[in-house]
Amino acid sequence: MSILVVGVSTRAIAESAVRAGCRVVTVDYFGDRDQKEQVENHSLLRDFKIPFSARGLLAASRRLEFSSVGYISNLENYPEIVAEFAKRGRLLGNTPDVLRDARDWRQLRRLCREENIPLAVTLLPGEEKEAVREFRWLLKPVRSGGGHGIRFWDGSRLKGTHVLQRFVEGRPASAAFVADGKNSVVIGISEQLIGCRELGAREFAWCGNLLPLQLDLPSRAAFLESVETMAARLARRLGLRGVNGLDLVVAYDANGCPTPFLTEVNPRYTGSMELVERAYGLNVFSLHLDALAGRLPQFSLAQHIEGPFAGKGIVFARRASTVPETMGGVERGRRDIPFPGDRIKAGHPICTVFGEGDVRGSCLENLLANAGAVRREIGDELEDYVE
User: Fold this and answer.
1) What is the DSSP secondary-structure string of 281-314?
2) Where along the chain do its domains lie?
3) Among the four 8, 312, 328, 359, which has the fewest Cβ within 10 Å?
4) Is 309 or 383 the better-scoring residue by pLDDT?
């Protein structure tokens, strides 16, 4: 019987599962062309004509037959929905209780304090007076995901749906790791692309990753050890299992030494893991299943942190556009491909592109060139765009 995978966009993890020899059925929002050509997919947008919601995913899966269920973004914010899915099949991921703990800001900051984990200072409703004015502060949704809804705080009173987090000057990064509830293995550290204008993203919206995170040679070993220690302590204290991710900001001291500051725990498959799979020859879905069974990989990230570089970018529409013929998109290295005739609204994703290079600069240049080719095809070129 099939494994059900649910979330906002399930194409990447579905590809990994197919490569692992698994039979999967997916329920997500977009239902892109390349996913529907590879697996049985049910789309809230295309097949049900309803907006995205966690409860919508649950309703759409009611008539499906499956033996196990896995989830991705943004189900980690809805442990009660994950619990409902778990009633119908074996849960392939962190339990609802683990999700509640990992996404509870009060508990997470206490844990980080006890474990000496650098956490960007986070304030809860009623603590606004502790927001020291000489620093900038971010207003962040409690049910966050992909950077959506994050903005600089204007000093207004916090509601229960948001927290404040001190803005840390530095480079946004992602760490991917696999855990068995007690121990962990870091399988990738990448730079996050945030609000990249060339990709059409705004403000703090996540729009891709560059793997590996570029670091000076003298800093690499110590930085990797810091991230591995952080992942290990979080895995042990929270009981994390399977594949998980950390959102980080890499800040530099007066001597230029990097320190990773935790900004969020993502207790599920993350977007950067697709690059880990492509660059390092790992199958992330297999690693996930193995870790759930108590088996961690023999993998040393230290052997991979010099490059070459691999990049992934989400191309967002700057204006409303109609998609032309998209046949052959996979062969051209694209993913999350829309159907011809689809109407893409301004600010919505068009597709995913990739890039490679021996150094960071050439990788990013290649990635943005591929994004530019997509724009030319739909008449959404940068030089014609006016804010």
Assistant:
1) ---HHHHHHHHHTT------GGGTTT--EEEEEE
2) 3-92, 121-166, 171-307, 310-384
3) 328
4) 309
- 261: closest CA among 269, 253, 272? 253
| Residue 244, helix vs strand vs coil | strand
CA-based end-to-end distance of the chain:
50
Q: Which of 85, 34, 98 is nearest to 56 (CA)?
A: 85
Of 3.40.50.720, 3.30.470.20, 3.30.9.10, 3.30.499.10, the CATH number of 171-307 is 3.30.470.20
Question: Token pair for residue 317?
Answer: 């529409």
Q: In what order do the strands lie in the sheet with 137-141?
A: 122-123, 162-166, 137-141, 151-152
CA atoms within 13 A on the CB side of 96: 11
Helices (H), 11-147: 11-19, 33-36, 54-60, 79-86, 96-102, 105-115
CATH number for the domain whose boundaries are 3-92? 3.40.50.20
Contacts of 359 (CB under 8 A, 6+ apart): 307, 309
Closest C-alpha among 173, 189, 358 to residue 273: 189
pTM strictly above 0.90: yes
